[in-house]
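Example (one chain per record):
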Amino acid sequence: MHVNVVTYVRVSTADQESGRDTQFDVIDKKIQSIGYRHVLDTFVDEDVSGDSHIEERPAFKEMLEFISTYNSQRPEDPIREVWVQTRDRISREVDMLGYASVLLRSRGVEIRATEESEEMLVTRIYDLLGEEELKKYRQKRMYGIKRRIQDQKIMSRPPIGYKIEDGKLKIDEEMRPKLIDIFQMFEDNVTMSTISNKYDIPRSTLAYLRKNPIYRTGEYFWKGRIVYQVEPIIKDGDINVREEDDFYS
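Predicted structure:
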């Protein structure tokens, strides 16, 4: 039985005794002394201050993406630890270190330092401060989302047939004739396979087009509710509606 881990090294211009090679050596010896660890990769941020924001560090961001991808693809044997020489290699700022701890823990990963025994007393303090930092970030993000809704600005990739201009959805006039034809084929009960082959659009995408109300009513949904309306692509008269067969004629 082993534990998958990655290692993180941060080197600032002021580092001398805790330089890159020193950190590698200390971390490697500690992991070997503990045993049962499988090091998958090492991430190094060069010339980065301990006061910098963790999400502005290229290697740290790369590490987060690597962990997320790896753990989603191998849930039966995930990465469980990030090893550093000391916790201030993550950050010298207590709240930022806590924030990093929360981000990693949300991915199922714990920070482990070679001087763990001396630092465990303040770990929970870091975590609590990190949770507060994450809460503030989420509050700011939600405020931004509400402001975009108020300004009727798009919050994700635009639906097929629309484009973004000044943050708002506008009809892509080049795509409009194709979508009118597709919706006419929907109305005529043409099979999804036929439409997919004609326009080289996946059937799953066609199913999404068919059920999305934005194309006929202009209603833009976010998280299950209408947040604003835009100009619909399919207008009155664009589609020839089939008449039901009269069984009594």
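Caption: Confidence is low (pLDDT under 50) at residues 245-249.
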